[in-house]
Amino acid sequence: MNRRHLYPFFSSLLLLLISCWPAAWAVYAEGWAQTMCYSALTVYFLMKYAPTPKSSVPVIFAIILGRITLEFFRVFEFHETLFSLFVPFIAILSIVLAAVCFYEKRWSVVALSMAIMTIVNVIAHHEWLEYFHGQ
């Protein structure tokens, strides 16, 4: 990982600290906020550093690594934070889908990605939370 891959890493880490605050108002809001923020961040850094799909792998990896770096602290309070474990999955999925949309550039791919993220944020996230609040 060279210096230009540190910018996506630290930007992703900073974005995590900025975008986690909507969870104070609603747990669902954090998933939507991270979907939008990480999709935009991914597209920005792919435009800046990765003109080809092959060169995008380190950039995408750096963004994902920046997103999950603080997740390792869950080890200390794992059972208490298990209900929010779905949000990192949402963020990683949005990063990958944003990269696919960036390189495919077809409306069908964009529409399918938006549908997947809507289903994940609305239905799957709701079911995840219902499962943990029911226990």
How would you briefly describe this protein structure?
The protein is 76% helix and 0% strand. The protein has helices spanning 3-19, 27-49, 53-68, 86-104, 107-133. The radius of gyration is 15 Å and the shape is globular.
Task: Give me the number of helical elements.
Answer: 5
**How many strand segments?**
0
The rough form would be described as globular
How would you sum up the major sheet?
Answer: none
Query: What would the average pLDDT be, to the nearest integer?
Result: 89
Whole-number radius of gyration? 15 Å
Rounded to the nearest angstrom, the distance between the terminal CA atoms is 43 Å
Q: Which structural class do the helices and strands define?
A: mainly alpha
- In which range does the helix fraction lie? over 70%
Q: Which residue ranges are poorly predicted, with pLDDT under 50 across at least 5 consecutive positions?
A: none
**In what range is the share of β-strand residues?**
under 5%
Helix and strand sequence: HHHHH
Tell me about this structure.
It is a single chain. This protein is an all-alpha fold and 135 residues long. The protein has helices at residues 3-19, 27-49, 53-68, 86-104, 107-133. It starts with a helix and ends with a helix. The model has no long low-confidence stretch (mean pLDDT 89).
